[in-house]
Amino acid sequence: MRAYARVGSLLAVLAVAACDQNRTITGVPLDPPSDLSYELDPSGSPGEPSAILLSWAPSSAPALSSYRVYSSPTTSGPYYLRGETTSPTFHDAGVPDLQYFVTAVDDNGDESAGSNVVTVYTRLALEAPETLYSTSLNGAVELDWTDNAYAADPGAFKWYRVYSASAISDTLCDTDWVLEGATVSPAFIVGVLTNGVPRCYGVSAIDTLGDESLWSPLREDTPRPDARNVALYPAETTPAQAGLEFWDGASGYGLVVNAGSPAANFTVSQHADSTLWLVPGAGTTMQQYGSAAIADLTSIDYAPASGYSSAALQAQPGFGYVFQVGSGPSARYGAVRVTYVGRTFLILDWSFQTDAGNPELVRAPAPETGATVKRH
């Protein structure tokens, strides 16, 4: 069991240094505050909280006027007057001192003995999340990570904090870190993102006193448009609904186009035996993803670096297909999972990465990066 606070007893007479003068608090028949506790405000930088919130049980003195909060940067004193409040809580902004106690003051200005002393032990932080994974979504990114911080000490765990920053490259993050949110679950969806724009992500664990762990490994991810349950028909029977254009280069995604359109990245064709085939369009090559059916479109993670061909492939239910649009560094990648194949039409799910040269379609484990974490 971890020790979160150290309680010290104070004598009725406490020597306190306040500002530039020493003065004595004389114990009077005032009930002192009790049960002083604290919670830290995380900043994003482990071991550097942005503030501390003190809370205590109120004094029962009938002539109570206010409370005075004292702190010391060391465990050996002296203590300094930190502030005064009429509330049984006190929010102290900035990196907190090491120790705090509170007194009660009555209408005559008499001051009680001190409450218990709390010591701020930021070194008791939880474990950092061991891994971080991401799934590229349409205008969003799903993050999930190892729940080891909770598993190691469930009684001390409070929640996780999720941060993001601009990505300079796929291995380097900028320093403009912002808080995306907090969650008790080891998963989080960051929404309202711009497709094709990479961002970096990191996660920390917070304990019940607000101590913040080190960060997880950092992860870069790029959201991309997708759609589910798109129906296409054979060019031989319904040419107007036989082709699919992943992206028109502007605001159009997943456009169903005519089989003869030069914009079609692929079309559906029907062979004499009624089987349906995917036929790459001009400037597009493709390949089957793996050798068996896949569970979902999100099973397709990174587009393969090679193996693309302009040859048609039979559309098989549950199978995935990856498309390379263009070539070289400016190539873009799309993915398709066929969910149903009939004699006269098929249904598929698709995704497309608008970031040129980026093969990231869905998910990969977090690499260590050269990112610098911004100090708040």
The oligomeric state of the chains shown is single chain
Which whole number gives the mean pLDDT?
88
What is the total tally of β strands? 28
How many H/I helices? 1
Explain the layout of strands and helices:
Blueprint: E1 14-18, E2 21-25, E3 34-41, E4 51-57, E5 64-72, E6 80-85, E7 89-93, E8 99-106, E9 118-119, E10 132-137, E11 140-145, H1 148-152, E12 157-169, E13 172-173, E14 178-183, E15 187-190, E16 199-207, E17 219-221, E18 226-232, E19 243-247, E20 253-257, E21 266-270, E22 276-280, E23 284-289, E24 313-314, E25 320-325, E26 332-341, E27 346-353, E28 363-365
Antiparallel strand pairs: 1-2, 3-4, 4-7, 5-6, 5-8, 8-9, 10-11, 10-28, 11-15, 12-13, 12-14, 12-16, 16-17, 18-27, 19-20, 19-21, 21-22, 22-24, 23-25, 25-26, 26-27
